[in-house]
Amino acid sequence: MSALNHLEIYKLLPKTNCRQCGALTCLAFAAALMRGDKTPKDCPHLDPAVIEKLSQGREPDGSARGEGEQELDGLRSRIADADRALLADRLGARFDGARLAVRCLGKDFFIDSNGNMTSQCHNNRWVEVPLLNYLACGAGLDPVGKWVPFRELKEGADRAALFAQRCEKPLKELVDKHTDLFELIVDIFDGKPSPGSFDSDISVVVHPLPKLPMLISYWKKEADLDSSLSLFFDASANENLPIGALYILAVGLLTMFEKIVLTHGKGI
Ligand code: SF4
Predict the structure, then answer these.
(1) Which among 137, 157, 183 is the end of a domain?
(2) Which of 11, 26, 198, 247 has its CA 20 to 30 A from that of 111?
(3) What is the pTM for the complete model shown?
C-alpha cells in the first residue's frame, strides 16, 4: 500500500469535491483510497504522475499489496500439485512435461513446476493474476456462443459501474481517437473481426485466455448520438475465471491497448 497517509493523499487531489469518484468529498476519497475501497483511477481528474504515485504498492485492482500475494501463492501451489497434463488438456493449454504454456493475446506464457510465470514479454500482474486463476480455478468449459455484458455475469452486477468506468469508458475514448486500434488488435493479438455483432460498426473478438473470448463492439458517433463501446463475454466466462480476475484481465487489456497506441507513436 502507498506509504502516504490520507492527509498526504488529500494534498495530491484536486480538492474540488466534485463527487465524480462517488465519494462525497476529496477527503472522503483519500480515506477510501487508504482502505482500498477506491483506486486512484476512480478520480477522473488526476494526471498520470499523481496516479502513478498513488498506485505505488498497490495491486492491479487497487487493493493494498500483500492482500493478494497470499492468494497468488495459494494458486501457485494448486497448480504445482495438479496433474498438469490433464489441466492443460482441460483449459486449452500445452504441457511439455515440465512447463505449461498458455496462449494469451497472441503470446505464450509459461508456468513452471512451482507455478511461477515467465514469458518473452514483460511479465506483469495484469496477466499473472488472471492466468493463475484460470489455471487453478477454471472449469475449462467451452464457450457456449452467447455474448453477455459484464453485469450479467455471476456477481458482475456489483462491479458493473466500476467496470464501465475503468474499462469501457477509457477504451471508448482511446478508440474515438484511434479507430485504427482495431486493426492493430487484429494484427498483434490474433483478433478476429466479427461483422454484424449487435449491429455495431466495428466488432473484434480477442482471446485473452484460450477458452475466454471477449467481444469488443464499437458504435461510431452519428449526428447527435455519441460513440459508444461495450465489452461482451461468453456466458461461460464465470465458469472459467472468477469475476475479480475477469475484471483485472479487462483492465489489463486496456493497459496493453494504451501501450500499443503509445508504442505506435500515436499519443493517447
Ligand atoms: S472525483 Fe476527484 S476531485 Fe472529484 S471529489 Fe473525487 S477525488 Fe475529489
Answers:
(1) 137
(2) 247
(3) 0.70
